Amino acid sequence: MNSLVLSPAERAQAADALARFVDSYEESLPARPILPDLDRDTLAKLLAEPFPDEGIGVAGFFADLRDRIVPNSTAIAHPRFLAYVQGPPNGIAPYADAITAVLNQNCNFWQLSPAASVVERSVVQWLAGLFTLGPAAGGILTNGGSGATKDAITTALADRRPDFRERGLQSGAPPLVLYTSEEAHRCVDKAAATLGLGLDHIRHIPTDDAFRLRVDLLADAIAADRAAGLEPFCVVATAGTVTSGSIDPIGPIADLCAREDLWLHVDGAYGALFVLADSARETFASLSRADSIALDPHKMLFTPLEAGALVVKDVAKLRAAFAFSSSYLTVAEDELMLDFMDYGPQLSRSFKALKVRAALRTFGVDTFRAAAERCLRLAARLGERVAAEPGLTLLNPVSLTAVCVRLDGRRDEEYPELLARLAGEGTALLGPARLGGQTAIRACIANYRTTEADIDLVADRLAALAKHPR
Ligand SMILES: *Cc1c(COP(=O)(O)O)cnc(C)c1O
To answer: Which residues surround ligand 1 with Cβ inside 6 Å?
Structure first.
């Protein structure tokens, strides 16, 4: 092949191979090991072998995929993949991603992506609307929840320090302090550290017995920092902590932030999209008071990686933090289209909104509401099963879909081996957790393929492992 264009015959061959791959992968899922039985020789070869001077062609590419890549890939879409907060991709995803690659719109400024700009605006509007953030709200799709939270903290910095762009953190003003809880995701620390705030200026406020940030201790910490001459500027609350699914008391935190003039960011990467479930909607009502919310369509909207989102109550503040004009990138403004490069750190950006739109339109929003509801119901079932088993201890109230379990009679050192055994025998991939000072096994149901039978199998096996330690 001396050109980068496929011939008509090669396109037909590639399309056929792709269709067969999608079908056979789907059909193989229930029987597929969740964690692959790694072929280390193959992996070492993948690492070291040189790329060929002469191409191996379409058939060669697909054969290699089948023989070496797929067998060494984790089956994220397996119905008993219950670790972390990681959903399987929805069924239209491979086609939407293929179309994204064909169109290859660059979502930096609108002229390179007019329809994409409008589609991204519509997706962002829909997301912001779920939380009734108001008429000035807007946002941007990001590569994930971590990125969204980092961009939110950047926006908060620019909003609190009008000279932040010019002088950064070096203006000689008092050090800024950010508050979050002990159960917050590490992405908050990572963002604060990489933005130059310093981990010393992050306060991890203790939580109550349901693992929610304690507002009284938050108020104390803010007062103590002010008394010490520091400058509180931002609170990152969590709507769905990664370990236990706890939802911080957003209303009282918002009251405190209003009194203290602090930016309120909510990390909703795991939990906030459960707003789609009727039974959980009320729980998220107070998110309307946030200045910004991080969301993850690649979790509970089951879009393939990567698709996160940041929605901001006053989108002008996001723009104030990220817009930089340059002569080579200036195009005439148009009221319909946005230049998304002005709303985040990236210049070249993929058309992530297409896969979100494809999912919402193909399946309809009701299907996602039902999927969220179903995950909640399955988690509640697992929580009830665990609570009822004499050998098992449920460590958290199951408010979303995370269930943390302790097995009686098992020492902390045994947990890694237990997790490996559960995965190896095909029961389920579950995750490790530390909660309330205790080591646990954590199941997180963020998987629309999981059934009640899967949940019962996991509960039965955990109970058996507790009763019969060997
Ligand atoms: C998943 C998650 C994140 C990180 O999101 P990424 O999309 O992986 O960057 C942050 N916070 C919480 C609570 C999460 O569950």
So the answer is: 85, 144-146, 185, 187, 238, 240, 242, 267, 269-270, 296, 308
